[in-house]
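Exam revision sheet. Question 4 asks you to relate a sequence to its structure. Input first:
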Amino acid sequence: MSAVLLLAGTLILLSSVGVIGGSTAQTLDHAAEVERVVAARDPDVPDLPFEDNPDPEQCGIPVQWGSDGQAWLSGMYEGELIQPTVFLYDSHLRQSVAGSAPHGAAVQVVLFQENPVLDYYFVKVAGEAEGWVPAPFLSFDPVIENTAG
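Answer key, structure tokens:
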């Protein structure tokens, strides 16, 4: 009888800390949320050539960038021009393209969002578009607009 009580107590303890029961449901809920976010993307949102944030619920809170927000859009990644036109997104979830500007366009950084895998900047293109750009597509050094060799 004491062995049965010990086993029952162990199962209750494991269940209460999420080792059994709840963690599987939470994992399934999380996977469903990630699938929902990806499925809700507009078809014109391109895949990224680098790793995106795998968990839409684990992203940081945007903060003001500061006084010197001068930067340039860069469609370069690993030495190759991936996006001659750099896309700006509605949010770090990249549900839709909010605007775009050419590689090398000067922008003003307004907000920064630190995330577990991929950081984002909210930028404004002078008199034109604004939106969130993944960190690899932003440079704080001027970039060459024409990369044709």
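Marking note for examiners. Helices lie at 2-16, 22-39.
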